[in-house]
Amino acid sequence: MKFNRTAIALTVAGVLCSACASTVNNEVKSKVAADRIVGTDTPFASEAVYFVVTDRFVDGDPSNNHETQGGEYPTWQLPLEGPEGKKAYVGYMGGDLKGILNNADYIKDMGFTAVWMTPVHDNPDYAFNGDEPITYGGAFKDGGKTGYHGYWATNFYKADEHLVSDDLSVRDYTAKMKASGLKSVFDIVANHGTPSFTMEEDLPGYGEIYDKDDNLVADHQNLPPQELDPENNPLHRFFHDYPDLVKLSNLDDENPEVRDYLINSYLYWISQGADGFRIDTIRHVPHAFWREASDRIRERYPDFFMFGEAFDYEANNIAQHTLPKNGGVSVLDFPMQKAMVSVFEKPLESDFADLENALHLTHGPYHNPYDLTTFYDNHDMARINATDNGFINAHNWLFTVRGIPVVYMGSEIGFMRGTAEHAGNRNYVGQERLDAAVNHPIQQALTDIANVRKNTPALQRGIQVNVALSGHTAAFYRVINTAESQQTALVLLNKGDSAQTFNVNQFIQSGNWVEQLTGRELTIAEGGKLSATVEPNGVQVWLREGKVENEALLAQIKYQLSRQ
After folding, report:
1. Less CB within 10 Å around the terminal CB: N or C of the chain?
2. Angstrom distance (rounded) from CA 33 to CA 15
3. How far apart are alpha carbons 68 and 76 in whole angstroms?
């Protein structure tokens, strides 16, 4: 299996540091080659991801809304009434692939290079009539909900009719997005199908799984898991006979037929243009499954990138998925998410130092922390409850530190800030809001810093060396030295409400430095310092082209790599 996760090396005083390769946990976390400094060689690490719940983004094709679908169990809109006229929705709202494609330039212009969308799989055509009914602000109940989100697949090989159009298949969509400069990240599921039991009457689609030829291969038959009979009923063989998540079917990952069904479906979607996978509920499926899946995928697509959702704030737990023996799958950085919320929801009352440990630049449990996908909220948790300045500071951090930034749709305008899933988190964004977004201060600041990252290899894949993270200010380097790029970036952040002057002499290199947002230039003499004043809620990225020549900086990089 070819999957080159990391290639890192350095030269100190002209002598190759041979110790670096032997002291990093005896694992292939780094491959030492002369004059080479890079956090990761994973190609996808250069991307920035915009995350879309497709049905809730933009209705690009009203003809695929199917507003009368479901009969006695309708699927259109289905509002949950909250206090003071507030609403959340558990039915379809009309968003589709054409709605994303129509806004490809909007997404690209902000500085994003990839779009992660919720699953395209076919979901049931009825609202679920089992379980307890969901209410405004409620959780862990599926009664009255639909599969608008895509995670209740009845056929893992078929696109849902609400998402595609007569003139836009999934393959068409990915090809046109790629032509627009955007990669496509597909959301995949392995541990569950639809809600499958407790129904008043057994509705079509629920508890059922169909193959690529639309043949029924599994049916829960509205039975609780403990009443399934996989030994005697072939339609029960896809399922475990014990529950996992709410009333969802619990797919039997130990069954070779199930593994083939799922893994072949992943390969199918790659053939339809998927450039990467986000894996739903990865920790609910054993490592052995993901090792087999990743081996089979990367045998055909060596650099294919995958990142999983393990909803756990303990780094040592989620890091297990990143190890090669467990499939070498990256993960969403939940420990960083928790730290970012604590800092940026109240930036004037918080300390940048609270973010430092979550970086895990040394003594970290991850196979490679530079491959982690970083975020501050998503569709499964409350949106960050920040002011405009809080969002701006969060984005300034997200797009300059190690990792691959992921931003949830609407965050560029502070959409439904502070709301949980059934309290507005997934409400419909719509074209009108996007058209107005270019005038929003969050969107404008995001566009500035995201495009700096987009054009700066050091911010995408460079080693991070911290200078100081304290109070309202942070200063750190990102360093890359490869055949293609030789850059040192110095990032200065100020989340305070007054201007802050930085005087940086630690690790500073002589030469010409250019600030990437303003174009301002400074020439630093040998032994000098870089002095700059950063405005409130501001960021500066000073860039020096050329190889690293500061021996103290090289020694610090050597120190970090030997302990990474």
Report:
1. N
2. 11
3. 7
Maximum separation of any 2 CA atoms in the chain, in Å: 80
Edge-to-edge strands, sheet with 121-122: 121-122, 155-159, 208-210, 216-219
d(CA 307, CA 288): 16
Q: Which residue has the higher pLDDT, 296 or 363?
A: 296
User: What is the identity of the amino acid at 266?
Assistant: Y
CB atoms within 10 A of CB 121: 25
Pairwise CA distance, residues 361 & 98, whole Å = 40
Kindly state the helix (H) or strand (E) to which residue 130 belongs, with its residue range. none
What backbone torsions phi and psi does residue 213 show, to the nearest 5 degrees? -100, 10
Characterize 154-180 residue by residue with b for buried, 16 or more Cβ atoms within 10 angstroms of its Cβ, and e for exposed: bbbbbbbebbbbeebebebbbebbeee
8 A C-beta contact, residue 376 and residue 492: no
Alpha helices in 426-550 (DSSP H): 431-437, 441-454, 457-461
How far CA 248 is from CA of 73, 86, 149, in Å, comes to 19, 29, 14
CB within 8 Å of 71: residues ≥ 6 apart: 126
Judge contact between 342 and 355, C-beta under 8 A. Answer: no
Q: State the Cα–Cα distance between residues 547 and 127, nearest whole angstrom.
A: 60
User: Which part of the chain is CATH 2.60.40.1180?
Assistant: 461-560
In the chain, CATH 3.20.20.80 covers 47-192+257-455
**Which overall architecture, per CATH, does domain 47-192+257-455 show?**
Alpha-Beta Barrel (3.20)
Which CATH number describes the domain made up of 461-560?
Answer: 2.60.40.1180
Helix (H, G, I), strand (E, B) or coil at 378: coil
pTM of the model: 0.93
- Rounded Cα distance between 90 and 257, Å, is 33
Contacts 24+ apart (CB under 8 A), 354-362: 355/397, 355/469, 355/474, 356/466, 356/469, 358/315, 358/333, 359/401, 359/402, 359/464, 359/466, 360/315, 361/402, 361/464, 361/466, 361/560, 361/564, 362/559, 362/560, 362/563, 362/564
Given this model, what pLDDT does residue 18 score?
28
| Helix 388-398, helix 441-454: angle, nearest 10 | 0
95's CB contacts (< 8 A; 6+ apart) are 52, 53, 54, 55, 56, 57, 58, 59, 60, 428, 429
User: What's the burial of 527, exposed, middle or buried (CB within 10 Å: 0-12/13-18/19+)?
Assistant: exposed
Pair type for strands 530-534 and 500-504 = antiparallel
Helical H runs in 180-307?
A: 256-271, 287-300
How does pLDDT run across 409-446, given as a tens digit for each residue? 999 999 999 999 999 999 999 999 999 999 999 999 99
pLDDT digits (tens, 9 = 90+) for 211-268: 999 999 999 999 999 999 999 999 999 999 999 999 999 999 999 999 999 999 999 9
208 vs 194: CA distance, rounded Å: 8
